[in-house]
């Protein structure tokens, strides 16, 4: 590993720390969907005005153009302050935007990238379907070419933020006779088009992050196709590489803070013997120490990955190792939080409220599914990192 912080990086950290401390949102992130959207885009716009939006986006697209190491510093400081993620802008910033940069036409880039960066628009991802999740190439949502339009019919599911989004990165089948991975097209869908029906899905933590989206003869201009017609699988692979490669960095940093908060919680909360603080209990102390060590190990892995990406340019399949490790670790930490809370854990507090251990515990079940399940990450590691037979 070759990762050292230069004097320039150290000065950069100081600048980030000062700016975030001054401009961080002071109010709690609201739970109601449209208020949450407004909160997220306002925070994105503040970052844009301060010159921090799109920290690792190239300068030619209006980003900060920071090196990978400086992006890491930004995420470390962001996570250290426990700042809320800009979840509504996540798809646009973390994978639709980067996919457009590498695969879209100049007109598409000029129209969409500045809007994403300024927080003018929210994007969502229409990839998964009821019968196509891990095996994404089985997707059935159909698009027929009619003149200069695609006419889309079908259904997507688990579409985060579809209820508040203006645009969607949508995968459709444009050639049903071609082999499974061929005949798919990646198209920009305007979510206000006629024939789109968006139905929120309530999850077990009471949130409505996801939606089911139905398309009934939705007419999308062919000029919205990104890359070539029928070649959407290769475009989608670029999208997923961004999603799996860099998107989890800030969550990892946040997890380190969660462990420290949990240690503080265990110091003043009564432990299993009903008398002494939880931290005095041998088993809880052992699990907390293990969590702290594992978070440090994950940080080392992240540094190693960033060091490698700085040399090779892309995280590649090794990004799956960190995603898998993070998922397992986050779930074990929130299980531990629940054990420390004891009966108080049954009192629900949403995950956006400080001390919202119960909400975070319930949400943690999703971590090993979103962005590709842990089983799929294991397959990728087995086949593409360890070169085991399929
Ligand atoms: C928080 C969150 C946010 C999401 N946001 C979006 C979004 O915005 N847009 C979107 O399109 N999708 C989104 N998803 C959906 C997500 O991508 C899918 O849930 C995921 O890809 C798994 O697909 P599935 O749910 O259909 O499960 P399935 O693919 O049906 O899998 C069911 C089980 O079988 C296992 N399995 C399947 N295939 C294999 C295999 N080959 N080897 C071993 N085990 C296997 C899986 O690991 C899993 O345990 C989101 C999901 C979550 C949890």
Descriptive terms for the model:
alpha+beta, binds flavin-adenine dinucleotide, 390 residues, 3 domains, Butyryl-CoA Dehydrogenase, subunit A, domain 2, globular, four-stranded antiparallel β-sheet, four-stranded mixed β-sheet, 11 helices, Butyryl-CoA Dehydrogenase, subunit A, domain 3
Write the layout of secondary structure elements.
Layout: H1 7-23, H2 33-49, H3 68-80, H4 90-103, H5 106-118, E1 123-126, E2 142-146, E3 149-156, E4 167-173, E5 184-190, E6 196-201, E7 210-221, E8 225-226, H6 232-245, H7 249-268, H8 282-312, H9 319-341, H10 357-363, H11 374-385
Helix pairs in contact: 1-3, 3-7, 4-5, 4-6, 7-8, 7-9, 8-9, 9-10, 9-11
The appropriate CATH architecture of the largest domain is Up-down Bundle
User: What is the number of strand segments?
Assistant: 8
Q: What fraction strand?
A: 5-15%
CATH superfamily of the largest domain: Butyryl-CoA Dehydrogenase, subunit A, domain 3
Instruction: Count up the helices.
Output: 11
Biggest beta-sheet profile: 4 strands, mixed
Classify the fold: give the CATH topology of the largest domain. Butyryl-CoA Dehydrogenase, subunit A, domain 3
**Separation of the first and last Cα atoms:** 30 Å
User: What spatial order of strands do you see in the largest sheet?
Assistant: 1-4-5-8
- Stretches with pLDDT under 50, minimum 5 residues: none
Ligands in the structure? flavin-adenine dinucleotide
Q: Which outline best applies? A: globular
CA radius of gyration is: 22 Å
One letter per element, helices H and strands E, the order comes to: HHHHHEEEEEEEEHHHHHH
